[in-house]
C-alpha cells in the first residue's frame, strides 16, 4: 500500500518526537512491504521564524495532498507573555484545524498495567479505565464571532457559537464510536447555563432514535470534571464542545500517569491529522529526554484509522507495551534511576518491531 504523509514537526520537542514516530512508521512500512512517501512542512513558531506565517499556504497544500498528517507540537514561550503579539504559533494550529475541516478530535485514555502507580490517582480507581473523548474542534468559543475588544480597550469578548449542523456531525461521530464500543455516550455540557449547550442536548435527543442500542446520558461539565477523577470507569465515549473538551482531555491524561502517553486523531472533511495531546514542552527541547510514546501511539492510530492497517498498528502498540513492561522508558515514567533518551526508546521500539515474526 502507498502511504503519503505530510510531516509537521512544529516547535519545542516536536521535531525529536516526530523523528522517532517517523522511524517507527518507516520500520513498519519496510516490514510489511508498503511504500512510504513523506514531505516536511513547517508550522507554528518555526514557521513564523521562517516566513512570518504560522500556517503557510505551502504547508496547507502539502497537507491537502497527503493521505495523513503526522504532527508534533506547537508553541513557544517567547509569545506567551506578550499579549500584544500580532501573530502567535497557536493561530497556526487553529487555522490548520479550520482549513482542513478537522472538526473532531478523538482522544482515547488507556492505562498501562505497569504504570498504574505513576498516576496520582489510586490504583483501584484507574485500573481498567478505557474511554474515549470526542472533542469538537472547529467551533464554539475558539472561533465564534464577535471576538475582540471595545474601542476603549477596556472590555473584551469571546462568543460561543454552534450551528445545529456542527453539533449533528460531531454527535454522529460520538454515536458511531459508541456503537463500536460499550454503547454508552455521555454528552458533556453546561445546559443549565448556556444556550449552545441546550441546543447540543436537544440535537442529541433528536438523534437518539437512530441509535437505539446506545445509552445516551448527559452530564454538566463541572460534575464531569469531578467524576472523571473520582470514577473514570463509568465512561465509555464522551462527546463535548471545543473548550470543555480541551480542559477535560488534559485532565483525563492524569489517569494514565503521564501526559507523554496519550495520542489523538483529528478527523473531518479533508486529510486527517495525528498528534500527541501534550504540548511543545520548550523547557527540554533539543535535550533528547522527551517521551516519544504519545507520538508513536499517534502514528499507530494513523496506520489504523487513515490506512486501515490494523495489524501494523497492533504491532506498534505491542512494542510500546513491551518497552514499558521492560522499563525501557524515558525519565517521566521510569520507576528507578535507570531511564533512556527519546531516541533510545524510539530505537528500542523499532528493533522490537523488526524482530517480531509476522505473517504478511
Ligand atoms: C490542544 C491545545 C490547543 C487547544 C492550543 C495549543 C491552541 O491546547 O490541542 O489541546 O487549545 O486546542
Ligand atoms: Mn489543550
How would you describe this protein?
With 360 residues, the chain is α/β, with parallel strands linked by helices. The chain has 2 domains: 1-102 and 264-360, Isopropylmalate Dehydrogenase, CATH 3.40.718.10; 120-256, 3-Layer(aba) Sandwich (Isopropylmalate Dehydrogenase). It is 42% helix and 20% strand. The protein contains 13 helices and 12 strands. The protein has helices at residues 14-31, 45-51, 57-64, 77-80, 89-99, 123-126, 164-180, 195-207, 221-230, 242-256, 293-305, 310-325, 342-355, and strands at residues 2-10, 35-40, 68-73, 104-110, 130-136, 144-149, 156-159, 184-189, 215-220, 237-240, 263-267, 272-276. The strands form 2 sheets. Strands 2-1-3-12-11-4-5-10-8-9 form a 10-stranded mixed beta sheet, with helices on both faces. Strand 11 and strand 12 form a beta hairpin. Helix 1 packs parallel to helix 13. The mean pLDDT is 95. The structure holds 3-isopropylmalic acid and manganese (II) ion (MN). Manganese (II) ion binds next to helix 10.
